[in-house]
Amino acid sequence: MTKQNVVLSDVKSGLAITVAVSNSSLFSAAVQKPLTAPGGYITISRSKLLKKLETGGVTEGRINAWVESMRASSPTRIRPTPSSTQNRDEGSWMLKHPSALNMFEEITNASKGKQIVMFLDYDGTLSPIVEDPDRAFMSESMRRAVKDVAKYFPTAIVSGRCRDKVYSFVRLAELYYAGSHGMDIKGPTKSYRNKKRNQPVLFQPANEFLPMIDEVYKALLEKTKSTPGAKVENNRFCVSVHFRCVDEKSWTELAEQVRSVLKEYPKLRLTQGRKVLEIRPTIKWDKGKALEFLLESLGFANCNNVLPLYIGDDRTDEDAFKVLRNRGQGFGILVSKVAKETKASYTLQEPSEVMDFLHRLVEWKRMSARGHSRV
Ligand SMILES: O=P(O)(O)OC[C@H]1O[C@H](O[C@H]2O[C@H](CO)[C@@H](O)[C@H](O)[C@H]2O)[C@H](O)[C@@H](O)[C@@H]1O
Question: Low complexity composition bias: which ranges (predicted)?
C-alpha cells in the first residue's frame, strides 16, 4: 500500500488521524477518470496538527487593526468617484490579476490533459453578501450552474459556515462539502451518474474542540447581547461574530467584547472576514489544507495531471490561493470589485460573473467532448 493519499477519519478521539479505508471507495462518487486512486494511509501526528499558530491571546492592538481594516472597506469610507491615483492603482491591479472571463482560453489551455477540480467558496462567491447571514440564499440559476459543473468536474464547496448550513443553501448531494473553514469535510452522498448512494467521507480534525466552541459561542452570545445588531453564529467548529448590522461607532466596543471572552481561551484564535470576526481552534488547518486534503484524497497527490480552480472572495480563501501558488498548479480566482492584496491569479467581479464563468466552463467541456467524438 502506498503512502500517496491522505484519508483521515472522524474518529471519536478527535485527532487520532489514521484511517483504514480505501481512498477510491470513499471518493468514487462524482469522480471521473483518472481519479481511480490507490488506497493508502497517512498519519498526521497529533502534535503537528495541534501546533499552535499563535498564542491564543489577541492583543488590543491587533483587534484595533482589524476594526480599522473593516472600517476602511465600509461603504461610508469608499469614495464614490475614484481619484486618478485610485484609477491607476486599480488599473495596475487588474493587469496583475486579470478577469478570469477574459483569460478563459488561457485557463482552458492550461487544463489540456489535466482533470479540472473545482473549489467554490459560498458567501460572496455563489451568493451575494446580504445583511442577514441566515438569508444568504443561492439563486436557482446559480444552483443549476454548479450542478452542471459537477457533472464534468469533481466539485467542492469550501466555506466558513457550518457544513449542514451550507448544504441547506446549496442542496446538491453530488458535491464535496468542507464546512467550518475545512474542519468538517464530507464527500458526495450521491453519484451524479448512477445515483448510487455512497459512504460519506468525514474528516473532522478539530473534534475535540467541540465542547469548547459551544462554550465560547454561549459566552459570546451573552457578552454581545448589549450591542445592538451584533450577531453570533455557531458554525460548529468555529464561531462568527457579525459586525455588518452594528453601528460603526460600536465596532471597537464589540471587538473588545470578543477579545474579553477570547482571552479565557488560549487554544482558540481569531481571524477576520467580511465584517465578521471568526473564532477557531489553533490547529494548523484552513481552507488551503482542506484543498490539499481533497486533492490528495481524489488521487492527485504529487500529480501533474490536475488543474485545481479555486474561486473565493474572502481573506480566508487566501490560504487556498497560497497553496495553489506554492504548488505551481491551478489558479486562484478572487471575487472582488476592488483592488485587494491577493495571491489569486485572476479575478471575477461578483457572483453573477462567477456564474458566467461556470457556464463557459461547462459549454467549453461540452464542445470539446463533441469535438473529440467527431475525430
Ligand atoms: O467561507 P464563506 O462561505 O465565504 O463564509 C464566510 C462567512 O460567510 C458568512 O458571512 C458573510 O456573509 C453574510 C451573508 O451574506 C454577511 O452578512 C456577512 O457580513 C459576511 O461576513 C457567514 O455568515 C459566516 O459565518 C462565514 O464565516
Answer: 71-85
What is the rounded distance in angstroms from the CA atom of residue 121 to the CA atom of residue 84? 33
Q: Ligand 1: distance of its center to the CA of 180 in Å?
A: 11
> Is pLDDT of 157 > 60?
yes
pTM for the model stands at: 0.84
pLDDT recorded at residue 63: 77
Ligand 1 pocket by Cβ (under 6 Å): 121-124, 129-131, 133, 136, 159-161, 233, 235, 240, 242, 244, 273-276, 278, 314, 316
ipTM at complex level:
0.99
CA of 133 to the centre of ligand 1 (A): 6
Looking at domain 60-78+207-281, its CATH class is: alpha beta
More confident of the two residues 136 and 299: 136
Ligand 1 mean position to 282 CA, how many Å? 20
Ligand 1 mean position to 122 CA, how many Å?
Answer: 8
Q: Where are the domains of the chain?
A: 60-78+207-281, 99-205+306-374
Q: What is the CATH number of domain 99-205+306-374?
A: 3.40.50.1000
Q: What is the rounded CA–CA span in Å between residue 342 and residue 363?
A: 29
Residues with Cβ within 8 Å of residue 158, at least 6 apart in sequence = 119, 120, 121, 178, 182, 287, 290, 291, 310, 312, 317, 320
- Write the residue with the smallest CA distance to atom 13 of ligand 1: 133
Cell of 225: 447581547
What pLDDT was estimated at residue 54?
A: 41
